[in-house]
Write a structure and sequence with these properties.
11 strands, globular, 11 helices, 5-stranded parallel beta sheet, alpha/beta
Length: about 325
Amino acid sequence: MSLPITLIVDDPAPLINVYWWHLAEVQDTEFPVSASGEPVAQTIPNDFLHQFVDVISRWGIKGKFSVLPYPAGLGAITEGWPGCDERALSTWLNVVRRQITPQMDITPEILTHAKTLDLDTRTLLPENERHWSRSQNASTLTPYIRYALEILNAVDLEATGITSPWDFGIEVEDEYQRAMRDAMRDANGRSQVWYFLHQQNERTDFCSRVVHRRDDAWQVSLCSQVGDKIWNTMNSLQTSADYVHSVADEYLSEDGSSGRLAELFQADTPIVWCTHWQSLYANGRTTGLQALDEICRRINTLWGTGASWMKCSELAATIANPDAGKDGGDR
C-alpha cells in the first residue's frame, strides 16, 4: 500500500493576515516588521487564495485548511467587521466551500487566534487564547469550541476536527480533549473526532495516536512530524528559482535522497506535514507557495503511487481503525 501524506495549513482567515495581529501585539506597534525589517502585510488578497487552489488541484494535495471563525477578534466571518469588504469575504468563503473542501478538511483554529473572546459580551479579554486556555476546564472550553463550530456551520463549512492556535490546551489536555468531543457532538453530531496540537520534528516513528475510544466513538491526536521550513520565506527578500529550490530541498531533494519528507518516507512513516498561510504568502512574494508547488512536483515525480494524499479525517480514521483500511505500512 502507498504511504499516506497529509498537509496541514494553519492560520488561514478571510482577507486578513492574522500574523500581522500577532506581531503587532508582540512588538506593541501598529507597524509590525519581520525579522528582515520589512513591514508585514496586514491583508492577504483573494488572488492568493486562487493561486493556492491552483497548486493543490495540480498535485491532488489533501489535508486540512483552517478557517478562523472570528479572525483576530475583529468579528465573526458570518457578518464581517468594520472595514471588511463584504463582497470579498463572500468570495473567499465561496472559493473555500467549492474548491478547497473537496480536497481538504476544514477546522476552526478555535475562535480568534488572538485575544480571547468573552462569549457573554462579545468583547475581547486581555489574555490571548493560548494563555487563557491554561486555566480552563471542559466546562469553559466546550462552549468556546462549540461557538467556533457554530460559526463555521453558519457559512456551510462544517469542521471535521479542531486545530489549536499555538499550543492552546496543552497544559489541560485531558479537559481539552473532553471539551472537543462534547462540542463536536453538540454542534456537528460527530462522535469520531481528530485534533491537531502536537509536533515532533525529529523522530521518524509515527507519533499520531488514538487518545480516546468508546464503542464506535474515537478521538485521534494528529502530530505533525515536518517542521515549517517554508516559514523562512517570510523573512527573506529572495525570489529567485534557486532560492525556491533551496527551500524545497529542506523537504525533499531533487533526487529524493535527503530532506525531512525523504526521512519519513524511507522510514515508512505516514507523513503529517504542517505549514502556515502566512508562510505560503511570504509577505506577498508567494515564494512559500512556489516552494510547496516544487516540493509536490518532486513528490509526484519521485514517489508516484508510492504516496497517497489523504484528508486529515481520512488519516485519523485509518489510525483509529487500522484493520479496516490502509495503514501506510507496505508500498
